[in-house]
Amino acid sequence: MSRSERTPEQSGSPEQRPGATAEQDHDGVQDPLRGSWTSRTWTAVVGLAALLILLIVFIAQNTKEVPIRLFGWSWHPPLAVAILAAVAAGLLIAVCAGTLRILQLRRRVRRTKRVQKQASQD
C-alpha cells in the first residue's frame, strides 16, 4: 500500500495511529533495532572514552610550561593545563548562562499558566 492510498488512521506518526506504538514502523511491525536507553548509554560511553583518549594524548604532547599573568598573579602551568582550565571556565560560564535562561523560562511558563487559570475562572 502506498503512502497516498492510506486512510487517515493509517497515516501519521505512531502516536497518531490507534493501537500503534513508537517502537512500531508504519506497517505495525516492531523495529528490532529501535533505540533504547541502553544503546544511548553505550554510545555515550564509547564517545566519552574516545574523548578521554584524545585528552590524554593532548596533555602528553603539551607539557611545555607557559607564563600566565592575571590581575597581578603570575604562574607557569603546563600549556595543556592552561588550555583545559580555560575550557573549563568557559563551560562553567555557559552552564551558568543556560541555567539562568532555563529558570527564566520556567518562571514565565508558571506565570502564563497562572494568568490563564485566573482568566478561565473569571
Task: Give the SSE map.
Layout: H1 37-61, E1 68-70, E2 73-75, H2 79-121
Antiparallel strand pairs: 1-2
Gist?
By secondary structure, this protein is mostly helical. It has two helices and two strands; from the N terminus they run αββα.
What string, H for helix and E for strand, traces the elements in order?
Answer: HEEH
Gyration radius (Cα, Å) is: 26 Å
Q: How large is the share of residues in beta strands?
A: under 5%
What is the end-to-end distance?
52 Å
Instruction: State the low-pLDDT regions, or none.
Output: 8-17
Helix share, percent: 55-70%
Largest sheet entry: 2 strands, antiparallel
Please give the domain count: 3
Number of strands: 2
Tally of helical segments: 2
Shape: flat
In words, what does this structure look like?
The chain is mainly alpha-helical. It has 3 domains: 1-34, no CATH class; 35-64; 65-122. Helix content is 56%, strand content 5%. The protein contains 2 helices and 2 strands; from the N terminus they run H-E-E-H. The chain has helices at 37-61, 79-121; strands at residues 68-70, 73-75. A two-stranded antiparallel sheet has the order 1-2. The protein starts with 36 loop residues before the first helix and ends with a helix. Residues 8-17 have low confidence and may be disordered.
Considering the chains and any ligands shown, give keywords for the structure.
single chain; 122 residues; mainly alpha; 3 domains; two-stranded antiparallel ribbon; 2 helices; 2 strands; flat
